[in-house]
Request: fold
Amino acid sequence: METRRSSGTYQVLLVTLLCLNFGILFFDRNALNFLMPFVQPELGLSYTQVGMLGSALSLTWAVAAIFVGWLSDKAGKRKILIVLSTLLFSACSVVSGFASSFLMLLGARLVMGLSEGGVMPISHAMVAAEVTPKWRALAMGVTQNVGSSLLGSTVAPLVLVPVALAWGWRDAFFLAAVPGLISALLIVLFVVERPVPKAAPRKAGERAPVADVLTNRNVMACTVMAVLLVSYLVVTWAFMPLVLVQYRGIDDKTAAGLMAVLGVSSFLASFIVTAISDFVGRKPVMVVSSFVGVILPLGALYFDGPVAILGLIFFVGWMFNGIFPMFMATVPTESVGPRQVATAMGLVMGVGEILGGVFAPFIAGWLSDLYGLQAPLWFLIVLVILGGITALFLRETAPRIVGERIEPEMADDFA
Reply:
């Protein structure tokens, strides 16, 4: 029986609210990164501790992404879980503003990761259930990328850094908590809780989805890329503000502007890079885009010209972000059968966040304590080169290139 869809107006409203909520979530998640030049000296943090703060959030984020997604299916209560998560990560922002030690800040980041990690899996599930299938991919892209790029990457540094300069970094954290409260209220008022359908039981003798996924070459390549490029992402957010202010000697406001450029670049890349892949193929775009990622750290290391040109270098180098939805969702989806899609995406996202998000900031911080703030930049260069090499092992999946969607029986072709 065909699933009855809600009205077009409600579909747009739902995507808008979830997009706004995820953008506010990233606003809170990234707040510490942009405020780190103020926080680190006052709390006396080492670079290793700076890295550990990023690792801690990534660890609990990954755990929550798996557990809370499962819980929402089990309990059939997606709306209330998103509301509670939003209120909790707003509270963690307030606690961060009161932090007087590394351990207190670490505790706030651990809880923030737990509150935020499950939001996107639940949001995607709600969008999939409500939005007309022919618009589903666009709706999911908007939900995940637009708000996080504009609010979490562009608006956050432009708002939080001036507040920190005027009134202090603690007030900036308190300010960051307010939008989450408003978003939670909007979800309570306008989002409708729908019954979650029961999953069909597996047929006798049918292999578990994970068994097919673990033998799929594309899924394994995407998982390795996720580890490498999520590492690049979190290390950039954790250390680039420090690199710009402390290593390059750039003033706080200019550094905030340069970081905001990354958000604009990511927003545009979400549409441009993926659209190009529809015409020329996933593999060449993912290979070339990965190598483009070396431009950003090389510019931060060596470019001494006008700030506007450095901003252009940051913009171009960060365009590689457009391949994130491709290796996290598009290629895995096009490489396995319909019953393995969720398992494939879960594997890529979960392993990438745990191994990349957890360990990379700690390694970058340790390297910074040993060799200085140029060390994480060289670390970034190594990560994207390895990511580009890994992309060479992908098999093409773009429908315009390979024709019909790959059937499960053809999975052996990837081996």
User: Anything to note?
Assistant: The chain has two domains: 1-194, 209-415.
